[in-house]
Amino acid sequence: MTVEVSVSGGIPGLSIVGMPDTSVLEARSRVRCAIKACGYKIPRLHVTVNLAPAEIRKTGTAFDLPIAVAVLAATGQIPLESLSKLLFVGELALDGTVCPSRGAVAYAALAEREGLSLACSDQTRLPLALSTGAYGISAISRLREGVGELPLLTAGIGGSDGADACDASDHLDFSDVVDQDIPKRAMVIAAAGRHGMLMVGPPGSGKTMLARRMPTILPPLTDAERSEAMLVHSVAGQPISALERGERPFRAPHHSISMGGLVGGGRPVMPGEVSLAHGGVLFLDELPEFATNVLQSLRQPLEDHEVRIVRVDGVYVFPCNFQLVAAANPCPCGHLGDEAHECTCSPARIAAYQGRIGGPLMDRIDVVVDVHRPASTDVIRGSEGAGSAEMLEQVMAAREFASWREARDAARFGSSARGVARLGFEPEASAFFVDSAERLALGGRGIARVGRVARTIADMDGHELVSRDDVGEALQYRSRRQL
């Protein structure tokens, strides 16, 4: 975007053209007050501000500072030559203070790509890698008093401060979850193979505790993942301090969320929860309570790892390579299959409740596991099971073995092996898989996903070929009595 200013005779005033929305039009009042508060003169001329290109709708308050600087330069109150290598971004307060605006990371990346120095508020939080880049970041506290002076440009802005680093959630560890060895095993498999997961169990069985600890067994964000995640969070106005430390995002929207809130949308178009979970975990608690259309909107993002939102004024693409973790009760009362409590739901209510998820979405979830109520003795005595450190080692070992195997297979076979065949099955395992797929009436997607889970289980054990036991365990996570 480029801010152009023309000064001409006529009735004094400030007009903004170029498809501005309400927040941009209100910049006229903020700019006039800020200029006056900082000791500059408000021109007694008609000032026309054009936001180019004019065919794209402009939103947000980031245009305040560039408009004010352009007006001052056009009226000769600050030198024009010193502005050619600066990208101004920021909102103006009425006293001339420059406030941070949403999308600072995106603006910093744009400035670096264009060979410019970003001039923004000194309160802006940016990753250290961007603030110490080749062109740097210039901080502006406010428009300076004194006619003819350029706004104060200081040293580059640092990243998150120590207070933010300490403002983290309580330390989570899988050792806090007792008597759940089978769900923990399933979570290691899901984390190692990046599989979608659904936990089914009665209330109080520990489904949410397990899900919230999933990021603790995932490897830190790579540089590319961190850059993309920070960009999305910055555009959405979300904090980025945890991402800068390499922590994977964890998003847990309430089941009353709208489709636009989940996959993105609105006006202006903003990324949804699936994009904010990019590189991390999207946790959907009480899965059947979500609106049906909201749940079904997840089908395409799960397959393509991106969201394409088509509007009249253009197409918006947001990344959404997330790991889905969901939890559900087996029935409306939550006690179906619970030996300690009697289920009071009728078969019709149970079928209707379980049918809210929908077969197409369930077909895209690789690992489904029952979570039973933990033993009272273990909970009261505070027994400990496998911790996050031990589980993370298993995940990392499985991923390293998978990387080695894929590199070896690519060098040995090239692109000749495709589909499930390239996963490498033992003859007995292959025959067992064919028989089981026919008996369970698995579709093409179901066969592919069971094969991927079996391959992950084999990688965890360091097997070059998938065994019959690996296929059997993968099928247990696919064929469930409930849901």
Mean pLDDT: 86
At the fold tier of CATH, the topology name of the largest domain is: Rossmann fold
For the sheet with most strands, the description reads: 5 strands, parallel
Identify low-pLDDT runs. 145-156, 158-169
CATH superfamily of the largest domain: P-loop containing nucleotide triphosphate hydrolases
CATH uppermost class of the largest domain? Alpha Beta
Categorize the overall geometry. elongated
Domain module count: 3
Describe the protein's topology:
Layout: E1 2-8, E2 13-17, H1 22-25, H2 27-37, E3 46-52, H3 64-74, E4 86-88, E5 91-92, E6 98-99, H4 104-114, E7 117-121, H5 128-131, E8 137-140, H6 162-166, H7 181-193, E9 197-200, H8 207-212, H9 223-235, H10 241-244, E10 250-251, H11 259-263, H12 273-276, E11 281-284, H13 292-296, H14 299-304, E12 306-311, E13 314-319, E14 323-328, H15 347-354, H16 359-362, E15 367-370, H17 376-381, H18 388-413, H19 427-440, H20 444-460, H21 468-478
Parallel strand pairs: 2-3, 4-7, 7-8, 9-14, 9-15, 10-11, 11-14
Antiparallel strand pairs: 1-3, 5-6, 12-13
Helix pairs in contact: 2-3, 7-18, 7-20, 18-20, 19-21, 20-21
Describe the structure.
With 483 residues, the protein is an alpha/beta fold. The chain has three domains: 2-159, 2-Layer Sandwich (Ribosomal Protein S5, domain 2), CATH 3.30.230.10; 168-381, P-loop containing nucleotide triphosphate hydrolases (Rossmann fold, 3-Layer(aba) Sandwich), CATH 3.40.50; 415-478, Helicase, Ruva Protein, domain 3 (Orthogonal Bundle), CATH 1.10.8. The protein is 39% helix and 14% strand. The chain contains 21 helices and 15 strands. The protein has helices at residues 22-25, 27-37, 64-74, 104-114, 128-131, 162-166, 181-193, 207-212, 223-235, 241-244, 259-263, 273-276, 292-296, 299-304, 347-354, 359-362, 376-381, 388-413, 427-440, 444-460, 468-478; strands at 2-8, 13-17, 46-52, 86-88, 91-92, 98-99, 117-121, 137-140, 197-200, 250-251, 281-284, 306-311, 314-319, 323-328, 367-370. The strands form five sheets. Strands 10-11-14-9-15 form a five-stranded parallel beta sheet. Strands 1-3-2 form a three-stranded mixed beta sheet, with helices on one face. Helix 2 packs across helix 3 and helix 7 crosses helix 20 (444-460). The longest helix has 26 residues, at 388-413. It is elongated and about 85 Å long. The two termini are 50 Å apart. Mean pLDDT is 86; it is low at 145-156 and 158-169.
